[in-house]
């Protein structure tokens, strides 16, 4: 089985930024350093608070969301919001790594979200005089999933590899049914996860274009079965990357995203990295 991310086939050429990045990330695993070679790095300061498994606060007051990952969520004052399984463990793991440690921030896309949080990769300077990429560390321990955006797509290849290893080794969240990879041929089970971020795996029965959209249909009853939908803006991102989702006809894939219910359970795909190709016919 081929476990290959359906992402850009063109290779971004390495520039002066790559050299600077490599020099700043002394001690970081070489493969991870290469994956993040295109980031704009800036000194971040010292971590004074770890809010949850994917958010820290710096001594400047800056709140940093660890872009590219989603850790189990805590209520954080939200009434009626449940604590996700392993959320306290994820918070503690990031706290053990980063609290009271200096960090470097790496920006590779949109830099601030609507909550005024910095969207950055976080590199922690450890007492052993090494640098640890916080996102990779959390995903590799099975305490976060890969969670990407169309305007923030750097450094994902290594994160996907780390997630795959953690899932194979059944670490952290990968032992809990709450985070199980859902089967595309069981739409009733996926419907129970409406409003949740899920990974869904199955074979594309038909990849079809209708107007400005592409539908990846995973069953014969298109108004009941699971579907991945790619809208026009996302199709432009696919085209810019030299990718055609219609070639996924018959492929075994893993799709990740937020589940909604529009003529059966579906996930809207906004960029290629939401689809991993596991095997082609």
From TrEMBL:
Keywords: Endonuclease, Hydrolase, Nuclease. SUPFAM superfamilies: Staphylococcal nuclease (SSF50199). Transmembrane segments: none annotated. It comes from the Bacteria. InterPro entries: SNase_OB-fold_sf, Staphylococal_nuclease_OB-fold. Residues 45-176 form the TNase-like domain. GO terms for molecular function: endonuclease activity; hydrolase activity. PANTHER family: EBNA2 BINDING PROTEIN P100, SERINE_THREONINE-PROTEIN KINASE 31. This is Endonuclease YncB, thermonuclease family. It comes from Devosia lucknowensis. The lineage of its organism: Bacteria, Pseudomonadati, Pseudomonadota, Alphaproteobacteria, Hyphomicrobiales.
């Amino acid at each position: 089985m081929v476990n290959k991310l359906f992402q850009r086939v063109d290779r971004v050429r390495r520039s002066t930024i790559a050299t600077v990045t490599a020099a700043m990330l002394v001690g970081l695993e070489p493969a991870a350093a290469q994956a993040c070679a295109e980031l704009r790095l800036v000194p971040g300061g010292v971590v004074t608070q770890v809010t949850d498994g994917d958010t820290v606060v710096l001594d400047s007051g800056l709140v940093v969301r660890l872009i590219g990952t989603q850790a189990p969520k805590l209520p954080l004052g939200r009434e009626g919001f449940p604590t996700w399984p392993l959320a306290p463990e994820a918070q503690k793991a990031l706290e053990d790594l980063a609290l009271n440690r200096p960090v470097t921030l790496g920006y590779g896309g949109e830099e601030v979200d609507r909550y005024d949080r910095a969207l950055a990769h976080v590199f922690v300077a450890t007492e052993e005089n090494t640098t640890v990429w916080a996102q990779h560390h959390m995903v590799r321990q099975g305490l976060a999933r890969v969670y990407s955006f169309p305007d923030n797509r750097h450094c994902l290849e290594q994160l996907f590899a780390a997630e795959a290893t953690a899932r194979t080794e059944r670490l952290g969240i990968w032992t809990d049914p709450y985070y199980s990879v859902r089967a595309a041929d069981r739409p009733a089970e996926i419907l129970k996860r409406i409003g949740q971020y899920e990974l869904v795996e199955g074979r594309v029965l038909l990849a079809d274009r209708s107007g400005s959209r592409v539908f990846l249909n995973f069953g014969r009853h298109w108004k009941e079965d699971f579907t991945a939908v790619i809208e026009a803006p996302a199709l432009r991102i696919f085209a810019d990357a030299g990718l055609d989702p219609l070639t996924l006809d018959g492929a075994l894939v893993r799709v990740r995203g937020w589940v909604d219910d529009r003529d059966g359970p579906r996930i809207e795909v906004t960029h290629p990295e939401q689809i991993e190709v596991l095997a082609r016919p």
